[in-house]
Amino acid sequence: MKTNQHATFGSRDGMNYAPKSAKPTPVCAPGEFTIAAMALDHGHIYGQCNGLIEAGATLKWVYDPDPAKVEAFLRVFPQAVAAASPEDIWNDPDVQLVTAAAVPSERGPLGITAMEHGKHYFTDKTPFTSLEQLEAARAAAARTRRKYMVYYSERLHVESAVYAGKLIEQGAIGRVVQVLGTGPHRHGKGRPAWFYRKENYGGILCDIGSHQIEQFLYFAGCSDASVAASKVGNYRNAEHPEFEDFGDATLIGDNGATCYFRVDWLTPDGLSTWGDGRTVILGTDGYIELRKYIDVARGGTGDHVFLVNHEGEFQFDVRGQIGFPFFGQLIRDCLDGTENAMTQEHAFKAAELCLIAQRDAVLVTK
Amino acid sequence: MKTNQHATFGSRDGMNYAPKSAKPTPVCAPGEFTIAAMALDHGHIYGQCNGLIEAGATLKWVYDPDPAKVEAFLRVFPQAVAAASPEDIWNDPDVQLVTAAAVPSERGPLGITAMEHGKHYFTDKTPFTSLEQLEAARAAAARTRRKYMVYYSERLHVESAVYAGKLIEQGAIGRVVQVLGTGPHRHGKGRPAWFYRKENYGGILCDIGSHQIEQFLYFAGCSDASVAASKVGNYRNAEHPEFEDFGDATLIGDNGATCYFRVDWLTPDGLSTWGDGRTVILGTDGYIELRKYIDVARGGTGDHVFLVNHEGEFQFDVRGQIGFPFFGQLIRDCLDGTENAMTQEHAFKAAELCLIAQRDAVLVTK
To answer: Is the pTM of this model over 0.90?
Structure first.
């Protein structure tokens, strides 16, 4: 069956975005890689679990202090057992990885606890809300030799983005010169209180900006970058004074490629999905445009890839054609001690740069 | 007849972009507004003359020291008389406006000469290559009370851009928060030597970046802005060491709106027109995307306007529907002493900001 990546939890709400792969390909036998889900604060936990389970993981436990969240989770993943406390998970030697979508400010500390109990950790983005948390996690990863991996879903769980990576690898656009991303999101209603508290969500560049910087480092093949400028603003939500509904940043990579991205919570009500996310990758010999979630005014589907190079103009509609190789690679990385899904340094570097962009941002609204 | 704005001089070459209006509407009687064309270095002179003539101007003279350029010009505009020297034009009291497309570094001085002879001046962009030239022109405009107007063609001579201005004016997207422009251009072959000399062309942000900043100020309704960061690079043309094939900048407007733009000379051979120029205007209540010259991989026409607001997703194909009101307004402004086409301060401010962005740019390639 061809699945629609927005179908499970409603396409109008990025908060509960939980893609299912058209091509699930388990990389291990049942029971060979056991996981637990904790901290169900953000709906991304469903996407994180879907991805891992499709790739062969066995979901054993779920824990959250809120019984309603656990109940909802068990309706989707009835194979899980509700743990009475986090200790059920920490003390179970079967559990190799804990996946979690805590309130952003709690993601770092939770990950360190997981690693100290010998578990790999796979958190929703953004992985940290302060540089201190990042440094503590770097130290814990080195000390425990466990992974602190991040669900940068806007690349890892988007087939058009996966396909763009393949095109670049094949040399379709030459050397990558710039990655330009726009990540509009629907604000909507019913957000929890922490969503509006800067101490908890970390700021817009720290939060949804982390996707963008991760994509830059990946598509441009940078291992480091500097933030040249960044901005934040609140244009439309004065009733939430700590909220930022606009942010942008521009970066210069260590290999001379550059990045610009804009993120916002200004998706208008009339858009038929949660956000018209685009990525434009400019190379010396062509460019790629991704219309990730919608080809606006042309119907509601996403994953449209446009390629222009010296040979011509091409369009590929890749929904259901590519799958999400990250999850299987992550499982194998955990089992084999490799770094094929994503290096630890890459995951941390994207986090570091979004924290720096946030820290140094100019406030453009008063 | 519905005209194609690329038809006259070839759609593959932005250098000779010379749109004709589907709706020419003269604003004055024949002979009421007399113009002369000088300095035919850039093919934009054809667009400048087309626009003015369609709006009612009478083209009396043409002058260039190169007889081949004059001959080619006279084939398109046989009504003009070849002047023997610039003095024929300077000393003709009939001539109210001189339009010119000199080598960029000569545009400022030529304009001052024109104004001192009592003529209004309408130059191809970019209007200056140094802040000193700009200050001299500011002083001359104040002293002579003549206009120093600029052919910012990527808005003034693009129907989709004109239409976007109307939509914003009508409140279709609320308050404008950001203008994001990409201006890729085809490098091609056969460029004159001055095109590669920084002293002459002024740098990529000064040159084609001027379009982008003008659009920002106009669409966002800013009267001033600061440049937060800018970059230039040469990724693909090492044989021209003073050439820049990449540039970008981000600005903060005096009303809190912001701008990011990228310009480049990296259009790949396979694109069916000279550049996939886009403008995305984000508002508090919707956004507009212009696909100015092509809707990539969907046929060769341009002027596609996409509007998303609280009411829904809309597409307008406006080629041949809108016309180019700037030219008639400019003629009336000259005749009536008004500033409806563009204020002098707006034309100068866009120039100033592109010169500052250029001066302060970080070089990202070594």
So the answer is: yes
